[in-house]
Fold this sequence. Notes:
The protein is α/β, with parallel strands linked by helices. The chain has a single domain (31-303), classed as Rossmann fold (3-Layer(aba) Sandwich). It has 9 helices and 8 strands. It has helices spanning 31-44, 46-59, 75-83, 96-108, 148-157, 188-206, 217-223, 244-260, 267-277; strands spanning 65-69, 88-93, 115-119, 133-139, 159-168, 172-175, 227-238, 293-303. Strands 1, 2, 3, 4, 5, 6, 7 and 8 form an 8-stranded mixed beta sheet that branches. β1, α3 (75-83) and β2 form a beta-alpha-beta unit. α1 (31-44) runs antiparallel to α8 and α8 runs antiparallel to α9 (267-277). The protein is globular and about 55 Å long.
Amino acid sequence: MAHLPHAHPDHQEAHPGGHGHHGHGPGDIDWAVMAPLLEAQAELFTPLYGTVMAWLREKAPEPGLIVDAGSGPGVVSCLFAEAFPGARVVAVDGSDPLLERARARAARLGLADRLGTLTGELPGVLDELEYPADLLWAGNSLHHLGDQRAALAAFAERLAPGGTLALLEGGLPARFLARDIGIGRPGLQARIDVVQEDWFSRMRAELPGSVAETEDWPALLASAVLEPTGTRSFLLDLPAPVSDQARAYVAAELNRLREALDGGITAEDRATLDRLLDPDDEASVHRRSDLFVLKAYTVYTAVRAA
């Protein structure tokens, strides 16, 4: 059973297109290696998560237990603890190195008495929770599970009567650059999107027990015997000129994409990415005055009948 605060994946971004990839195939993701990028992105996206949590407070105003299913390094778990000061939060993930970072973050923020962790693979590990969740958050973690319909049913079973499931899936790909950036062929990010979609399909197909599903999330939530209660998209809009934090995040993201998608992009686009990542190049993201960050996340909510 999970005990707070020391009970032992929101891999908020975990495929090339806004989620992370390491290794030789779509399923080879080294979450410990990904940890700094996951943390940097979640920290940069804090304003977006703030609006998400304000919206969720309207749906679950006083949750006693919040479960972050697929918490990664715990940035969002800690944001939940801050946004809902009366709640206990359990960060659940299959990677103990990431959960170690979550525990360290909670300790730094003075939240260790209200944030616990639970290590294991979703969705089965949720059976180890001592109490049902009043709010269960799954942020970009469901798509890492082969049978998403079965996983949603398992999530629903771990909700208290009247409890809310909040599912973050989809949205729009991130944009950092204009269509024509003055080097290479215009439309670089749009072409990368196509390669990432192919990568994502392969990743999904190679998951254990993979089942193809039409991504009609309200319908899938209803199939889990939940009542859909809302859908809303949230925007992160950081216009140029961006902060050093945003610039570092963009550089890290493009570097990861350059490595992950090397075989799927043209030599011309690889050369453009190399210039964008070269700190000594005036056209690089380290120096560009036109760099920005624009990203949309979509959240779906549903409630378990009381």
